[in-house]
Amino acid sequence: MTQVAVTSLMALLTVVQFITVRHRRSQRILYASALITLAMFLNIDEVYLAVDHMLGERNLTTFISDGALITGTYFLSAAAIVSVRGVQDRKGRWPVWLLVAAGCVMVVAFAFIDMRHSSTRFMIDFGGQWPAAVYNSVQFVYLGLVLGYTGVVILQNRSRLTTRASSIGFTMFAVGCVVGIALVIDVIGMNLSHLMGWWDALRFLQSLYSPMFFVVMALLCTGLAIPAAARFVLRHWRGRHTAALIRQLEPLWTRVVSGSALPSALSDDDHEMQLHRMVVEIEDARFRSGGELQLSEDEVERLRLAHDHIAIPDDLFPMAAR
Amino acid sequence: MHHIFYVPETSPLHRLQCVLHELSHVLLRHDESSPGSVGQLARFVPDIRLERGDAIFGRVAFEDETEVEAERLADRLAAAIRRPRRHPLEEHFG
Hints:
The complex is a heterodimer.
Chain A: H1 2-19, H2 28-42, H3 45-54, H4 60-85, H5 94-111, H6 122-126, H7 130-157, H8 164-196, H9 199-256, H10 271-289, H11 297-309, H12 318-321
Helix pairs in contact in A: 1-2, 1-9, 2-4, 4-5, 4-7, 5-7, 7-8, 8-9, 9-10, 9-11
Chain B: H1 12-27, H2 30-33, H3 38-44, H4 65-82, H5 88-93
Helix pairs in contact in B: 1-4
């Protein structure tokens, strides 16, 4: 049930990231969401058994799912690091080298695990073997290091975020990273207890795993979805408002603007650009008329609303404000 | 050296468009391909010794291709200035 809920959350986040794809500078976050969704989806018991049956019942589905999870987490951290430090920064490249190293160790360790059947309880069934403990621990240590570093990068930049939605979303994401580190410690504790035969400790740590896993994924998903969803809603609302202003201004524009208008004035796909052009062309016509062009009170009010909508803050261009 | 003149008695948005339009001529290097307009220019800067090739651009009509280019670039510059400033994290995650 937890797995289905987490997969649904991740799928929802991927859809949000996909809808907002045009408005993002980099698509690393989309790759991260899609890969982590794939990892979660493959871990749903029914899906796991069906896929693993097709792959020869050798638990290769676990390997594919874990590979997707650590690669997706790498893209998540890369999105945060590159956005803050830039692509050229060499210090920020360690997650990719660590990903390669962790991947190599996991391939070797996986090859040494003695598996006789397909299992949806991979670590419960095979976690008593050293190679399985190494395989799982390396994977989770990688996740812990990368998530922890990503959380630190986000917290360091939190005060410079420009919207409340971003601030809330990224704070939730950073808290998710912190709980994620606790989850990693829990998993390593389970692996060690299993190897050593400390059954009481194993049972206690197992009882913590599912709720912690759900909390981590819920915080990460919700934290990432909030800024993207808020921007989508605001952009949609502003787009509708701009279109309404264009409709209101069109009769005035048609009346006062003649042959001097640029041909694109009403054909531009971007509503903001279209409104900008209409206002500029109306202002041009007023200026050329030398005060002879009379506007009704209603037309003046519509022009003022359009001006207010596309106004540029004085501090950005003080020459225009003077 | 480039000088940009604008009429202050219009709206802030119109002033901005006029300044960006003239700036666009400079960015698009229209002055380098212009035949020059020393006669017109002398009216505005009577105390400066002008040379052949010095040119004046005005934002009057859009029949001329260079004027259309400058106006289109001015529109894009205005859109870029208007776009809200966001933190790089928001640009990559939003």
